[in-house]
């Protein structure tokens, strides 16, 4: 996969922008919030909910953070005005985390307060290893200020994730709320698993651990062995659609959330599995990225993880492997 993946990345980069735009249309909800709203309205009939991401990340100066602050305000307005079942996903580096930590905290706190007024949850996406601890620290600091509408993402490929789950649960008890995923950044083998099976085993174990700690589990994967394991893990704990969350130490019902868990998938990826989960009554959330910077963003993702190029190529030439 490695060599072929890199080859596909090289080819994609040589393709004209209009061709890449045609492919990206499936995975990116458009250039502005109006396009994203229209995509979500179309998908609402499937019985799903959403998390909205304004494309972009690490900024080079603090003025650029203002763009994200303003745009996320527009997203909050759009959620309320259109009565959407949606929350936010943000990247802490887009709010200045790697430039001025104090300012980034202020920017994120302001957004959390605005979101809290409307009972809207904010997920801090997890970026590369440089910000793993700083991102977790933000969540703990915001909860200490009474802002309970925030949670983060943990990446199962990282060796540290099991201790991170315990550490966050020790601090926040039942209010801990994780999106658990494989991790898109291919980190060094000294800090992360690199083989597929090790990553899947780790993720399945993390799902169990999160559920056993009474925390909220947002299971973010399109990979059937993970979904299958998660369904069995939920059943074994008496959890599922329409069943109240009665685990020891859990925080109880949360606005916009499922009964202690939900499934999450990216826009445009494995719609058949997503629809099956939603139809069975599982809370199922679609990650909706939109923004002007879709091209730069897509190219960076491809550089970070050539597997993404392979997935996309496969879905073009073998559409049955990834239904919209
Ligand atoms: P896997 O990569 O094995 O994919 C299974 C199948 O799904 C593939 O065979 C393919 O058909 C399809 N597929 C998966 N990804 C695809 C793609 N991009 N395009 C087309 N088809 C694709 N990572 C991170 O580091 N920080 C984060 O904050 C997040 N946030 C996040 C939110 C949500 C809602 C999801 C679903 C994922 C993330 N991720 C993430 C990404 C995650 O870490 C991981 O890289 C991808 O989900 C791919 O891993 P899967 O478990 O889906 O399996």
Topology, pairings included?
Elements (H helix, E strand, L loop, with lengths): L1 H13 L2 H8 L8 H12 L4 E6 L7 H20 L4 E5 L10 H17 L4 E3 L7 H13 L5 E6 L5 H12 L4 E5 L14 H17 L3 E5 L3 H13 L24 E6 L4 H9 L4 E7 L3 H11 L2 H11 L7
Parallel strand pairs: 1-2, 1-8, 2-3, 3-4, 4-5, 5-6, 6-7, 7-8
This protein binds dihydroflavine-adenine dinucleotide (FDA).
* Major sheet attributes: 8 strands, parallel, barrel
Q: Structural class of the helix and strand makeup?
A: alpha/beta
Q: Give helix and strand order, one letter per element, not per position.
A: HHHEHEHEHEHEHEHEHEHH
The coarse silhouette is: globular
**Low-pLDDT ranges:** none
What would the average pLDDT be, to the nearest integer? 91
Number of helices: 12
Strand content: 5-15%
Q: What gap, in angstroms, lies between the N and C termini?
A: 23 Å
The CATH architecture name of the largest domain reads: Alpha-Beta Barrel
Ligand types: dihydroflavine-adenine dinucleotide
By CATH, the topology of the largest domain is TIM Barrel
- Highest-level CATH class of the largest domain: Alpha Beta
**What order do the strands of the largest sheet run in, or round the barrel if closed?**
1-2-3-4-5-6-7-8
Total domain count: 2
Helix content: 40-55%
Radius of gyration: 19 Å
State the total count of DSSP E strands: 8
């Amino acid at each position: 996969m490695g060599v072929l993946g890199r080859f596909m990345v090289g080819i994609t980069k040589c393709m004209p922008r209009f061709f890449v735009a045609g492919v990206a249309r499936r995975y990116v909800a458009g250039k502005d919030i109006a396009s994203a709203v229209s995509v979500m309205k179309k998908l609402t009939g499937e019985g799903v909910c959403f998390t909205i991401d304004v494309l972009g990340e690490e900024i080079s100066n603090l003025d650029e953070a203002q763009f994200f602050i303003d745009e996320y305000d527009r997203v909050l307005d759009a959620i309320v005005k259109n009565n959407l079942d949606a929350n936010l996903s943000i990247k802490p580096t887009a709010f200045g985390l790697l430039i001025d930590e104090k300012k980034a905290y202020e920017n994120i706190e302001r957004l959390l307060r605005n979101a809290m007024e409307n009972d809207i949850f904010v997920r801090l996406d997890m970026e590369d290893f440089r910000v793993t601890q700083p991102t977790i620290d933000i969540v703990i600091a915001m909860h200490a200020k009474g802002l309970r509408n925030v949670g983060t993402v943990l990446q199962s490929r990282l060796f540290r994730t099991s201790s991170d789950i315990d550490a966050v649960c020790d601090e926040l008890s039942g209010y801990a709320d994780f999106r658990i995923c494989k991790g898109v950044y291919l980190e060094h083998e000294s800090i992360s698993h690199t083989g597929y099976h090790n990553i899947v085993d780790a993720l399945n174990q993390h799902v169990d651990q999160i559920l056993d700690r009474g925390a909220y589990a947002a299971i973010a994967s399109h990979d059937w062995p993970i979904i299958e394991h998660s369904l069995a893990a939920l059943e074994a704990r008496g959890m599922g659609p329409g069943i109240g969350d009665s685990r020891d130490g859990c925080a109880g019902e949360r606005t916009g959330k499922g009964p202690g868990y939900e499934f999450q998938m990216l826009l445009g990826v494995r719609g058949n599995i997503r629809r099956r989960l939603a139809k069975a009554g599982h809370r199922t959330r679609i990650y909706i990225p939109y923004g002007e910077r879709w091209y730069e963003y897509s190219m960076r993702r491809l550089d970070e993880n050539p597997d993404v190029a392979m997935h996309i190529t496969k879905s073009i030439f073998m559409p049955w492997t990834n239904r919209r």
